[in-house]
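DELLA protein, Vigna unguiculata. Tokens?
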Amino acid sequence: MELDQFSSTALNLREILVGYGSTQEDVFQGKEGFSGMELLGSVEDEKGTKLFEDEDHKQLQEPQVDKLLEEFNYDHDMQLKPTPQFDETTWPGKHDLESAEYNNHVPPSLSSLELLRNYRSRFKRISEQNITKPSLDHHQISTEEIMRVAGARYVQYSAHWNDSFCIPMHPYGLDFGGLSEEENRDVELVQFLLAAAERVGCYQFERASRLLLHCQRNSSPNNASPVQRVIFHFAEALRERIDKGLGRTTTKGSDKNEERGLIQKIDTNVALTCHQNIPFNQVMQFTGIQTIVEHVASETKIHVIDLETISGVHNTVLMQALTERQDCKVQLLKITALALDSCRSMIEETGKRLASFAESLNLPFSYNAVFVTDFAEIREDDFEIGEGEAVAVYSPYFLRCMVSRPECMENLMRVIWNMKPVIMIVLEVEANHNSPFFVNRFIEALFFYSAFFDCLGTCIKDENECRRKIEAVLSEGIRDIVAMEGRERKVRNVKIDVWRRFFARYRMVETGFSESSLYQAHLVNKEFAFGKFCTVEKNGKCLLVGWKGTPIHSISAWRFL
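Tokens:
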């Protein structure tokens, strides 16, 4: 019975890896088989039954592969029906956020197979680029490409793994033509990690532990290659998951979002180093601010609602743009920041810096901060919208923190709707880390964080202390995605296609970015030493900002009907 279970789960993981060989368009169009409301749904169903728990997975019957792949597609015929009247019972999205149908989700094995299949063409592309052939003019390939080569090799030769040994001895050999000796070792190490994850997925914890031991002995969070650093953090997260599964630890996840907490504690020097050397933030900030400026071009009183900003750097860009107006002078720029009480000192310091900057520009300015102990407490009156003020909402990575709390999301959307903003700019992480199934989340996270670690290793490789602090934050995200289940999971990133489905239920309309905004994005990108690796691509009306072709962030603009 155990062997049958392992064979089924193993097949699923390999299917997912095969999926990581498809075209870039296929991979990042959100084809995970869940509707937007399911992905944003509550972690409990309407009857209060907990979802996404390991014991629930054990009860699932594995369907046939063809059935799985059929269920794995989005329901494209689903009609989004905006509700004409908003009240406590008919607020759009309310019931959807509370009614995730766990039994309709695709079992982990099937989903895994599909994910790997989606990447098949990428493996082909790697082969065409002579990565697997001898090359006299070798150049170092990226961290994510290493993962893809390893995934392709694992799918091809996984039958050679023999669990009767404590650790398989070099099952694929060390010499992959065209790769350096270090890259060959990294590829092999990734295969050990994949084998461990596969066994964790089918609850073979002791076998997984033996494989992880090899990973942990050959990786490090410090003086190591980006691949080895990624493997270290994923191995640590897998180890914690195993310890929980074997009852070795009873530690429960915190009610707090630990990843967000670490981000808020990053010191100014680290934040400044990242801002000056990594293109992502500035590309999106200039694009978003340019769009706000265009939508308030004829307004003299402008009120920006800043959802949990920390440094407020983007507001200085807005101030400079507004002072350059010739035809319509600004009578008042009001910024209201929303934050938790725990961030009070940082937010107040940000307000003082912004006020000083506005004074230097001779710009009429007002700053207010709304502090709450819980985001469920947000009320419209807190923002003090004045008569004649044009409201713009700037949401940098804020909504992702509410995916696991639909009641907070609903309340926030109600408040924003009532403020009638002329534009809402949304910055989010472009990844699917909200699957109810462990193996799906693991593979998605592995490729996503590989690209991110590669970016850090390239852009701030000489700033080791800064890089370590940023990677510590990313490590907490990895831990949350891999080691946690159910309500313990706070990191629930979803892709832009899911946000589109969600926003449509609140009668929000996506608006495209102007040529001027796009020009700003590309102009800023060129200013960075490694800007050529930062990719800015259109996805419908939004922009996807990534690293070497792998989307990392999305920025979109929305109006309310």
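The CA atoms of residues 56 and 422 lie 45 Å apart.
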